[in-house]
Amino acid sequence: MKSSEFVESSEFVQPESSQSAAAVARGQEVVQKLLRSVGKAAWIAGTTFIVLGIPLLFALEKEAAYIQMENLEYEMEALLGPTSSSHQH
């Protein structure tokens, strides 16, 4: 009887191991899909930053330099008085 009990118990172990293998396979599939989605999102965010963000940064830096130059001209004009270059504006 012990041998039949062993056979019966091994039959129950078999489906559990195949079920757990199927669950592991589904889990791996979900992880792969998640990683693929994260990769796509990272690609979209990165290319969007390159296409839109970097030119915007350059434009803002150029504008800041222009404002700084104007402020410097106003300070010089206040200290030295009007110059010939200030009348050209």
TrEMBL record:
One of its GO terms (cellular component) is mitochondrial outer membrane. The keyword Isomerase does not apply. Pfam families: Tom22. Keywords: Membrane, Mitochondrion, Mitochondrion outer membrane, Protein transport, Receptor, Translocation, Transmembrane, Transmembrane helix, Transport. Coiled coil: none annotated. GO terms for biological process: intracellular protein transport. InterPro entries: Tom22, Tom22_pln. Signal peptide: none annotated. Its main location: mitochondrion. It is a single-pass membrane protein. The keyword Transmembrane helix applies. It is found in: Mitochondrion outer membrane. The chain crosses the membrane at residues 41-60. PANTHER family: MITOCHONDRIAL IMPORT RECEPTOR SUBUNIT TOM9-2, OS02G0131600 PROTEIN. Belongs to the Tom22 family. This is Mitochondrial import receptor subunit TOM22. It comes from Digitaria exilis.
